[in-house]
Specification:
The chain has 8 helices and 9 strands. By secondary structure, it is of the alpha+beta class. A hairpin with a 5-residue loop joins strand 3 (about 150-155) and strand 4 (about 160-165). Helices cover about 50% and strands about 15% of the residues. It has helices at about 5-10, 25-50, 70-100, 110-120, 120-125, 130-145, 185-215, 250-255; strands at about 55-60, 60-65, 150-155, 160-165, 180-185, 220-225, 235, 240, 245.
C-alpha cells in the first residue's frame, strides 16, 4: 500500500492557524492508521497460535478434548478490535473532510459511501475506489458492538472462520451478512488493506482539493519549526529543541509538496 499521499496530508496539516485548528484531527487519523498496520502484522501470528493451541484429553472421558481458550480469545479480540478501529478511522476521515469542505462532504462515512455509490463520477473524483470493504466492516462492527460476541469456528476443510450471527435488527445492517455467514481471517485482512489504500487515496484528494488551496495565500508567511537530524529526530541542545524560521512554501517543499503561485 502507498502512504505517500497520507504522509503529505499529515505534513501539510501541521501548518495550523486559529481558523484551522481542526487540522489536528489528521493526527487522530494517523493514530488509527498506525494501529491497523500493527494489527495487520499481528493477525497472521495470532491465527497460527490459535491453530496450534494446546489440546488436552479429559481424563474421565478420553473422547472429550479440552482446548486452551487463550489463543482463540486473543485472535477474536484482535479481529473485533481491527473492525472497530477501521470503522473509527473512516469516521474520523469523513468528519475531517466535512469540516475541510465546509459541509460539502458528509460528516459520516456511511453517508459518504451512499453518496458515492449513487454518483460514480463523484466516487472517482474523491479517489475512494471500491467501498465494499466499508459495507462489510460496518456490519461486523454493528453486530459485534451492539448485539453479539465474535465466534471463531472451523469448517470441514479445517479453515478457521469468523462466524457472524444475525441479531442485527435493521434490514440495512443485514445487506452484506445474511444468516449463518462466515468469513476467514484472510478476508478481514484483505478488507483492512483495501481500506487503508482507499483512505490514503482520499487523503490525497483532500490535500489537493482543499488543504493546499487554503494554504496558498499563506505561502510567504514565516513559521518557526523544529530542526531534525538526518534520521528525522528533533535536535535537542541544552534541554531545548532546536528550531528555525522558514516560509510556509519551504515547509511544504520539505514534505514533497510543490505549490505554484
Amino acid at each position: 500500500m502507498s502512504e505517500e499521499a497520507f504522509r503529505k496530508l499529515l505534513s501539510a496539516t501541521r501548518i495550523v492557524d486559529t481558523n484551522t485548528l481542526y487540522f489536528s484531527w489528521t493526527a487522530e487519523w494517523e493514530s488509527k492508521r498506525n494501529t491497523l498496520i500493527v494489527q495487520l502484522s499481528d493477525l497472521p501470528r495470532l491465527l497460527e497460535a490459535h491453530r496450534g493451541r494446546r489440546n488436552s484429553p479429559y481424563g474421565a472421558n478420553p473422547s472429550i478434548t479440552f482446548a486452551d481458550p487463550v489463543p482463540t480469545l486473543r485472535l477474536a479480540n484482535a479481529c473485533e478490535a481491527s473492525a472497530n478501529c477501521l470503522y473509527s478511522m473512516a469516521e474520523i476521515a469523513a468528519n475531517f473532510a466535512n469540516r475541510l469542505s465546509k459541509g460539502e462532504l458528509p460528516s459520516r462515512f456511511n453517508a459518504l459511501r451512499k453518496k458515492c455509490e449513487a454518483n460514480p463520477s463523484l466516487k472517482a473524483a474523491l479517489a475512494l475506489g471500491d467501498l465494499q470493504w466499508y459495507r462489510k466492516v460496518r456490519e461486523l462492527r454493528t453486530e459485534w458492538t451492539h448485539y453479539s460476541s465474535i465466534f471463531i469456528g472451523e469448517d470441514d476443510a479445517g479453515r478457521t472462520l469468523l462466524c457472524v450471527r444475525e441479531y442485527r435488527r435493521s434490514p440495512a445492517d443485514k445487506a452484506e451478512f445474511k444468516s449463518r455467514f462466515s468469513c476467514t481471517v484472510g478476508d478481514l485482512i484483505d478488507w483492512i488493506e483495501r481500506a487503508l489504500a482507499t483512505l490514503d487515496g482520499f487523503a490525497g484528494y483532500l490535500l489537493e482539493e482543499f488543504v493546499i488551496p487554503s494554504l496558498r495565500p499563506r505561502l510567504g508567511e514565516t513559521l518557526r519549526v523544529p530542526v531534525y537530524d538526518v534520521n528525522g529526530v528533533p535536535i535537542v541542545r541544552n534541554c531545548l529543541m532546536a528550531n528555525e524560521e522558514i516560509s510556509v512554501r519551504e515547509c511544504l517543499r520539505r514534505s514533497g509538496i510543490e505549490v505554484e503561485g
